[in-house]
Amino acid sequence: MVSTRETIVHGPETVSWRVILDPLMVVAGVRALMLQALHPTTMRGVWQNSNFLEEPLQRLFNTANFVAVTTVGTPEQADALGARVRAVHKRLRIKDPDTGRTHRVDEPELLLWVHCAEVSSYLEVITRRGLKLTPEEIDAYYDEQRHTATYVGLHEEDVPGSAAEMAEYFEQFRKELRVIPESRATVRFLLWPKMPRKLRFLAPFKFMWFPIGAMAYYTLPKWARELYGALPEVPGVQPVVTLGLKLNRIGVRAVPEEIRARAFNPETRKLMDDLLHRLRAHGIKPRRNLQKLRITSS
């Protein structure tokens, strides 16, 4: 077996590779934002420390780049990005208007919530669209993602590393979740975004976004949808959403990769180009679909 551990954080032999490189990660990313918004302190941190409504894509781009670097980047790239992220988080604060308390953005409880909401959302959406994983592979995915959590400052032993541990975490943490005005505004925005001035030219195409937002919303846990109540619980909607995810993935994959790549920022595109060069240096010649790449022999 060819080892890529020295050149790639999570190589083609890992479950993380199969999940993270899926074309439907954009839907998974929107779902993650919706789920994260249920934690009041986390949501206030986003609103108080960013211009989310004016730069709606920037948070998704930044998250996409972090996920890409900590999955298919080199350990050195992941360490460098992690250091930058931790440095930014270290100086940011969150003011709680209910208690008057000031929180640090890098409090472990907040970092863990963001991590768990993200990695569980990725897995939920990608398996719903049809990626078949055994229970053992699902546990392996969560275990691999424990290492990813260290880049934001968490300790591996404090992060859920299996499906059972993740389910237990959500069951225990649900009591901390509720909808605040910022949460509701975020979900409304993700379902039907107000176009910022620089993107007003895309307004006529905004209707094409709603299916993405709706699919992300309906893949949330039932308890999360009940908290929001943003869209009706129509009988039979779940099979339609699952079918929609599968059809959406077919449509996305029909778009040439060079065009799809334009949806990401230059740093992420360069990372993927570097990845191809590193794989070829190991004698691996990936063709159309990196997600299906396997390393089985030297």
TrEMBL record:
Pfam families the record matches: MPAB_Lcp_cat (PF09995)
Sequence ranges assigned to domain ER-bound oxygenase mpaB/mpaB'/Rubber oxygenase catalytic in this UniProt record: 17-230
One function term, GO molecular function aspect: oxidoreductase activity
Domain of life of the source: Bacteria
Protein name: DUF2236 domain-containing protein
